Queue: 4 jobs
Job 1
Amino acid sequence: MRILRTDEARFANLPDYPFTANYLEVEPGLRMHFVDEGPADAAPVIMLHGEPSWSYLYRHMIPAVSAAGYRVLAPDLIGFGKSDKPADVADYSYDNHMTWLTRWIDGLNLQNITLVCQNWGSLLGLRLAAEHHRRFSRIIVGNGMLPTGDRPAPAVFRAWKAFASHSPWFPIARIIQLGTERALNADEMAAYEAPFPSAEFKAGARAFPALVPVSPQDPASAANREAWRTLEKWRKPFITCFSNGDPITRGGDRHMQRRIPGALGQPHITLRGGHFLQEDSPKEFARVILDALKAEMAA
């Protein structure tokens, strides 16, 4: 496996991203970067990004939650952000991402986790929580799902998958802007491009759309169905926090509310924004997390 590492200088002076870099090897020579803010002995809140973003997506939410006394951890998935980037699209698989994230959680020995996830952060995070349910105390999902390939993929997703696989042009920041209602400024656009100094660094981002299960025979479908069997018995708090302007995940919140027992009676909410609601409604999204954590303390 040929591994690429983005020069740290590309991340200098990013707007609203003053966080110290932390790294953990998830296999020999392959480093995963993560933000780790707040008291080290506090209850951990993991914020998982998706495609094609990185932990920069949560820059306005991390301080709000850590200032309230919680330990906020926001990893960059392998292939994204400050994490290392295998150079070949074939190096990326659903199972590989699951293995890398599991080793990261095990390496830090995280317990009593609140999971916050969106996009591929949900595809990975929901399965991670199901497979390691004793480590997780609650789940908050924004614009995400855990597909098994048993339902048809939306046309807009099929178009996105074809673009990611075949387009010679793959503009990371423009893709994020398309999923965001507010206009990103030039510095923010540059920050989303920072992890990818050239096309060969984008293999992980190129790979993700093709890894979404779209048929019952998909390589990840059986494991995802097994995760659903656990989630259908999940009685710990499960909260959906979707946006009102995402055509890809629309309706997924109601689907999960019906199937997951822990969703019953929870303060589900719809926020204003596009697919990347962390950009459009970060304060409101952070408030959902803090309210969920405070509800536990009051119980």
Note: The two ends are 49 Å apart (CA to CA).
Job 2
Amino acid sequence: MSNQDQQPPWGKKHKPQTPEEVVAQLINKLQDFFSDKKTPPPPGDGRAPAGPPSSPFANIGKLLAVILIIVVLQGVYSSFFKIAPSEVGVILRLGQYSRTTPPGLHFKIPYIDRLYKVDVENIRKEEFGFRSRTPDQRAVIDTRGFDMESLMLTADTNVINVAWIVQYKVADPYAFLFKVSDVRQAIRDISESVTRRIVGNMDFDYVLSNRDLLAASVKAELQTQLDGLFPKGMSGVSIGTVQFQDINPPDQVKPAFNEVNEADQDMKRLVNEAQETYNRVIPKASGDAKKMIEEAYGYQAQRINNAQGETQRFNDILAEYNNAPDVTRTRMYLETMKETLPNVKSVYVIDKDQQSPLPLLNISSPGGQSTIQPKSATP
């Protein structure tokens, strides 16, 4: 079966034309439109072409008509515009601010409204003291030739090398476009000025050990100065982050600085060791001293209380003795015997007429055998 048999009944299907073919057809149609030549008569006909000669104004009118059509088509095409999700559109009408359009499809008056697209989601950054390179998809930091940006003088007249990054976003698209002629250069100049002034008011050691506080101070003052340079605080940008990448002394003095740093670390280590010994010994000695003092106070109070108690007891016994001497004497004797006899192992009973000790039963000895004391009795 041939290709003609496979064609659909409504005719041959045209394939999509390429842009070159479309342009070529358009040029051919324009040439035919402006051509003054009529279709040539058939061969063999000796008659001359009929009709008056064409006027030159006719071609001008056709040209103006084509230009008008092109202008209208271009105006219709340019009246619709699309804003990406990360962008906003600023519309100027006859050179004056008209409105700000959010992301999406919008309409504007052609040839009267002018559109400016601003990326408000992208985080822009400015680098000071170095530049980031990305050869072969790898990030490389280049610090050569940027010493004029990074070298600063501290309050104690020391030179320090500071490298930092300022990140910012567009906060007001209209102010960003028309209130500042060069936002990037303004941020660089003000950031460098603020950083140099803050670092110049601090000592070398403070700058090295407090980079976070330094970055926060630079961020706050940078935003304040940017807003203060323009009416109503419309700088158009919002400072997001200030990061200090590297804070070091210059390469020429790094060996000496390392030696000083090592000596300072040794000094701090010795001071910490001494403080540790002090904290271990002094509190213990203080505690022992307080303990001895408190024990002395306790012993003093005990002796005084005992003495006062004995004195009071003696006075009470004396008063009772004065009232009943015999009874008191007997009671004191009995109380003394009651306390003494339990600790006595041997008892001697002596009679004035007895020439030798009287043997008694030793109750405390095993078997209860009697023992005779060898000691002679005294009359």
Note: The chain has a mean pLDDT of 79.
Job 3
Amino acid sequence: MKRPLTYIMFGTTLFLLHFMFSVNLYVYASDAPYIAFSSNRDGDYDIYIMDIKGKNLQNLTNSPTHEFKPAFSPDGHQMAYVSSRHDGNPEIYVMNLNTKVSYRLTNHPGHDDNPAWSPDGRWIAFDSYREVTYDIYKIEPDGENLQRLTHGVVDRNYNATWSPDSQSIAFASFRAAPGIYIMDADGGNQRRLENQPLSGHMPSWSPDGKQIAFSDMILGGHRDPLFGGSRDIYTLNVDGSNLRRRTHHPAMDIFPDWSPDGRSIVYYSRWNQKTDIYLIEGGLGRHGGRSIDAPSSG
């Protein structure tokens, strides 16, 4: 039994999986307790899924190039992800999870990244370097009706996450006041999330629409030997109230994502140059921690 490499201030922590150098987004399928993630255990990054206990590992992609940043459709039957399989340029693809057949959604010389499926299934938001910097775009799952939502000049806008009603998008930005911003689904009414002590990154909107989880180096930070200043997981109400620190230890805690019932947060934690998947569970309101056995990455 491995000990968790973290002290969790709120909730119970489960050690789900150990693997080397996998630092991409993982998400929950909306209709099944599975987590998708990318790992380079076979020499290049491919996408895998496992159940919430860290068991039943399955490989979804098997390309000689990299696949990463999986995002399930609301019905759990499709998955958007990033791949550079055709010409070495990262593009958004969509896989039918029943047939494992994928189609290419975007086709542009710019770097397309971080797909996020709207809860109503109508849109896939993503960030792309198509003009002078990264901006947020959205496109219909059939590849039609591409729309640019942010218009940065020197600031990078990235990591979109949808509100549960599909009416708003939160995202990270490196504009003059960096941090997490919220905008309407058409790109209007952009405003910074209030009461961020520093600048949040990698936002994830809770299923009840009330909170945003994010990674930040605030309220005191540690140092990571590879990345420098480390980050912890925090939650903040959408109205700017009730800032809460969810992890507290000298490591990089990044890419938080909520379970469908809103009672758990899964995230990456990097410690001693190794990256693991952890789960904060139990209503996010109790002290304590425990680990579970998980398959090795090999």
Note: Confidence is low (pLDDT under 50) at residues 1-28, 221-228, 285-298.
Job 4
Amino acid sequence: MKLVSVIVPVYNVENYIAQTINSVLNQTYPHFELLIIDDESPDRSIEICQQFTDSRIKIIRQKNRGLAGARNTGIRHAQGDYLAFLDSDDLWLPEKLAQHVKHLESSPQVGVSFSRSQFIDGQGQALGIYQMPKLLDITPSHLLCRNPIGNGSAPVIRKEVFEAICFQDNLHGEVESFYFDENFRQSEDIECWLRIAAETPWLIEGIGEALTLYRVNGEGLSANVLKQYDSWEQMINKHRDRSPQLLAEYENPARAFQLRYLARRAVRLKNGKMAVSLTHQALATHWQIVLSEPTRTVQTLFAAYLLRLLPLSFYQGCELLALKLTGISQQLHILRDRFTVKFA
């Protein structure tokens, strides 16, 4: 039975960390180690972690290095054949690890196995909607434009994949191995996944079930939208030299998809002015996204203008209905996929 190293960076999450740890301990796949990386958390998070007595838990302390730095520390300490990442405010369903181990064991060419994700709110309640990405035949161009993995709590990755993208640097007073780029405080996920897709032979594939519960909260979202775009541009600048052919062909489409994604985040924030502006920027950058993904693009533009023009109370009623209909459609899609796999 393969050992899985579960890496949980911890910083200022005392309201969520107990639930997160329990979601790991409740896994049906028992052969794992849980590496809790204390990124110099200022609150009671680590005190809460210390209350768990499971022998599979190890707490590793370090000076604050951010999310990428905490993940790198976890990778360096990991003893597992597979490495799983779980952000400290997200949750897993009990069969998460078992499903990914099964996927990786049956598909030796797959280096990154990820799942669909279900959105939950700050109290852990299901919002009824899902991340529904492309699961198969994922190319570097698709990853650059749309990031099907979706969030940092979705993937389980072979250790050999990280060995293939490892680089040496001296950022903290000594030469160390790095995997995630610690120059990024946002977009570190997509930057790493892009290196895997563009610079290694490993395939990236998804599982149709929503095994990750991805927490959505609005804390600092407005500022984070702009910071995320700046960080994304930093990632593009880095890969323009590393993958020049890819960027020459897909940089503008990728920028348009990113602006549209950020517009949808602005809609969630109820910032209509920002949502309209970002949608306009997306269309001005690469109007062809209307042809490649007409439904999502028109929905984003429509939602942005409704939010901008309608009274907020009326808009929220429209949004609630739209989310319910979307959730029902997504649930039917997931059930259909599960039925197809079961009887294939």
Note: DSSP finds 13 helices and eleven strands in the chain.
